[in-house]
Target: Glycoside hydrolase family 5 protein
Amino acid sequence: MNYSFVLRQPLIYKTIFVVLLLVVVSCKENPKQTQTESEEHKTIVNPEGGIGLKDVISSDRNTPIKRYGQLKVVGNKILSECDKPVQLAGMSLFWHQWSGKEFWNANAFRWLRDDWKIQYIRAPIGVEPEDGYLEDPLTAQTIINNAVKAAIDMEIYIIVDWHANDIHLDQAKDFFGRIAKEYGGYPNVIYEIFNEPSGNTPEDLDEKWPQLKQYSEEIITTIREYDPDNIIIVPTPFWDQLVDQAAKNPIAKDSKGEPVKNIAYSLHFYAREHGEQLRKRADFALSKGLPIWVTQCGRVGVNFAKPRFENANLPDIKSWNLWQKWMDDNNISYSKWSLGTKDETSSSLYPTANPNGYWTNTDLTPEGIWNRSHFRERYNKGWSPGCD
Model:
């Protein structure tokens, strides 16, 4: 091609020519992807105007269920179906009856799986407060059924959380019996049979370990009638902090005297409030062979009554990093609180967020932005080895 004519033209025409030339060269050097390649690297587009994220990858071929399969408990570790140690990380939804319930759907779960790179969802069925399970069990059952089905469809794990602060044995047996009968054949399901037993101090408890142990044995019997294998997470006293007490007298048999298996114990922490003393309790429990699952945690404190603008419950980054290292070192799975819109520092989303996902940074609170980055960084560093 003779370029002398172009060189004699004004600068603007020269610039246009160079741009057009680069476009032609680029098209020649980057042929269209094959159908297979396109399917492996699907970019999810927000129909409401674009997500502003160019690196959203579909995870259909590497879902947590495909990677790890049927989980089990051996010693103080959670193992995959192929007997490899597993550490899972996920998000806890907010109480089912309050703001944030709009995110309990398959589209939001897909977004969390593909964009945030979470491996499981924790679904807290609120029990005692207004509009909770005790007041409206049918609505609660419908919502949790939809959530479990969505998790199964998305091939992620789901913790079915009885989000109570007091014992309601008969209602819990009915609830978990229904869940186990309907979904116990799916490896996705994990049972958390009592959220946070309450108390004023570690010495002034509303439910002590012998009472919680007896309660757990009853619920284990109910679940195992239909589901012999999926993990059951049992509570520990004082807001799931006194794991050392459970370690001194762990559950060995259910209420019918049958040996138990695949039982883990819940530990909750908030980094601004809890530190080395609680980790020492947990270290003691691990040394006694107690398997721990951190089913609820956060970088903030426990002052949830304050709105975000008051800065009353800010993250403690140094403390969180110590907790993160401890969980990583011990292969302990954890759920971050919460995927809600309540005006508190720990919430991840603003009320304007799309119920189906497709969230941009303008939809995410500061903690939500951190949460997304955290899970994606964890994914990029490499999840626990799978069963490939």
Remarks:
- The beta strands are 72-74, 77-79, 89-93, 120-126, 157-163, 189-192, 232-234, 263-270, 292-298, 334-339.
- The two ends are 53 Å apart (CA to CA).
- Confidence is low (pLDDT under 50) at residues 1-9, 11-56.
- The first strand starts at residue 72 and ends at 74.
